[in-house]
Protein: DNA-(apurinic or apyrimidinic site) lyase
Organism: Microbacterium azadirachtae
Amino acid sequence: MPEGHSVHRIARQFARNFVGKPVVASSPQGRFAEGAALLDGRAVESVQAVGKQMFLETEGDLWLRVHLGLYGAWDFSGEILVDPTIASANGRMGQTNQRGTDLDEAPILDDAGENSLASIGAPRKTRVHVRMSEATKGLADEGAEWPPPVVGQVRLRLMTDATCADLRGPTACALQTPDEMLATVAKLGPDPLVGDVDAGEERFVAAVRRRAVPIALLLMDQSVVSGIGNVYRAELLFRAQLNPHTPGRDVPEETVRALWRDWVRLLAIGVETGQMMTMDDLTSDQYRAAMAHRDDRHWVYHRTGLPCRVCGTDIVLEEIGARKLYWCPRCQA
């Protein structure tokens, strides 16, 4: 499931390519035909990501709410104007946060064929095809047919005169009034990139400290904190050296605050680089290797049975809340 950094990146693509422009909306699949008919011809006025959900405001006080869920993805085609705050090929966020990293070299392609330091390419205005989901892929497609042919099950297609966005497989795709949109957002926990970060910290601390639920479940509860999924959950707990089964109310307040502040930091890195990089103090070679291979970016996630990078104990995999949990039984005892 796309985690918070992916949804914020998608929202930024919409901000640069769709805001201020009228859209042609359709539902090639047919499952959102009525909604598409209502959106058709309206100008996009704003876009906002909150956790794992995106809200697109159109003229006439109509909001499009999209939750990608496990299988959803946006495909962008046409002229893609990339957000300059997103990493370019020199890996600025990685360079800022990784000691001794020098990445002014050739692009780093990961095992999914993605330029890991410019997830949807360096800033440009050209004919391309880009998929934005948890496993983002950028596929050059210059000179392609326009408008692009519909491929597969497209729930919603939004087009300007130069850019096309196809939505596939979302958990939720719905139109909302302003009041309905605000009610949806009100049910979500704080997002470090939405509103005041200090106020978000206080909300998070209060929500965690009053619950007897294991902290591993609380971090995945989108009413407690927005945007954290399976990868960030495992990595945040390891970085805090925190037993995932500890009830929230038993986690020391300073540890809860440290979790929030670490989430603020990791989310910012994820938004700019497009990758859930959670390891620190890497050499240049180590960082490039991590950007090239997803399993080398994390302390414990997806490392079942492999030795802990710190203590050598085998990483444990268990199921909690119907989701996989990876952790070190020694470092996080």
Observations:
- The chain has two domains: 4-84+123-183, 190-327.
- The chain has nine helices and twelve strands.
- The first strand starts at residue 24 and ends at 26.
- Residues 253-273 form the longest helix (21 residues).
